Automatic annotation (TrEMBL):
Species annotation: Kouleothrix aurantiaca
Protein name: Chemotaxis protein CheY
Domain Response regulatory: 3-119
Keywords noted in UniProt: Phosphoprotein
Taxonomic path: Bacteria, Bacillati, Chloroflexota, Chloroflexia, Chloroflexales
Keyword presence, Phosphoprotein: yes
Residues with the 4-aspartylphosphate modification: 52
Record field: transmembrane: none
GO biological process: phosphorelay signal transduction system
One Pfam family recorded for the sequence: Response_reg
Amino acid sequence: MPKILIVEDEIMNRDMLARRLAWEGYVVAIAASGEGALSTVRDEAPNLILMDLGLPGLSGWEAARILKNDPATAHIPIIALSAFAFAEDRTRALEAGCDDFEIKPILFKRLLLKIDQLLLGRLQ
């Protein structure tokens, strides 16, 4: 089953997503910071990343940009997760290299559809 890395500093959000994704059959890895995301991606080799944008320290925007500019990790799809709901926030996330954008609070069924769409061609 595909591995999803959840990058989220809020423990309740992180745990809720991890439990729901595990229930759906995904293998879950977790990082609580942008810096943690960079090392976890290299250690865990996830198939997809759910990246909170409002991380302390190295932001999700910065972490996504670093991952997408590295040939070793550029192929990994990233779905940005953000409470920022303005169109410019979505644009900024996509410009940083995120493949999609989901507004918090997360509608889990919609998130699952996005995950499935992004993984479909990459795992065949």
